[in-house]
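Open question from group meeting: does this chain pack into something compact, or does most of it stay loose? Before anyone orders reagents, we agreed to write out a predicted structure and look at it together. Recording both the input and the output here so the notebook holds the full record.
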Amino acid sequence: MRVMGIDYGSVRIGVALSDPLQIIAQGFTTIPNNSNTIDELLKIIKEQNVEKVVVGMPYNLKGEVGSKAEEVERFIEQLRKNTTIEIVSLDERFTSVIAQQTILSMGTTKKKRQQNKGKVDEVASAILLQNYLDSKKDSVRG
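Structure tokens returned:
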């Protein structure tokens, strides 16, 4: 069984999946945020044998819920209405910044970055999911 990571955005949603042993997170895809989003996610959940979804919660710098976090909470509720699998939220502050830095450090050209803006969302979802998987491992060891 896999875990899915979601980096929610108003325009695009980054999706990452763990390996079946839930050790490694990898970017999977980016989907447009539109009226088909929930259906697309449910399709991935079913096809990829996902048992849990981790959604990034964009708290503000003080760790408080702002307007963007409220939008994500509404998205989570919509997803919960359509599936019975567990959905958890995780603080995602700075994952997009880290994703941008990662893509830059890989030597991706400016032209390629502009052509594939969704790559940042996909990488951010993988970073978020890896943070979740690592925290699960630490709690088992600890």
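Observations to bring back to the group:
The chain has a mean pLDDT of 84.
The beta strands are 2-7, 12-18, 25-32, 50-57, 86-91.
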